[in-house]
Amino acid sequence: MDETDAELLARVAGGDGDALVGLYERHARRLLGYLLRLAGDRMTAEEILQDTLLAVWRSAGTYGQQSQVSTWLFGVARRQAWNRLRGTAPPVPAEPDDRAADPGPGPDELAIAAAGGTPVAAAVGRLPDHQREVVGLVLVAGLPLAEAAEVLGVPVGTVKSRLHHARAALARALTPQGVPQ
Question: Would you say residue 1 has pLDDT above 90?
């Protein structure tokens, strides 16, 4: 029987390295996709992911079960990213090479595929930080709006608003380039 994320995290808190590997295998792909959006390059994103895993190893005992483990992991990753990237200008985000498998492409994925990635990445890179971060959590990592709100420490309505404004800005930026909406 597969263990839940909470059970794995409890084992990590007890010093079980295999449990950390289990959490990594379940969540690394989505975390890396999110971190690529924040960092802009794969090497930095991978380093932040390593920092995140180290922070999870050290602080697993502080998980209070107020949120899902995945939400807590994204919060840890967010803090690690901002610690590392503090004081640097945000780079143009890279398109993640390996996205989590979805049942089928949605309109956002179709737009990215039609654009070949480059115009979309450039347009996302021009978004304000707060909108780019929501795009990374919701559209790249696939977090539900409520979980994204928890990671960011803002109300769900704020996430919806930021996502709406980000989509509108992307549509304005990409329509002249012939990217379908």
Answer: no
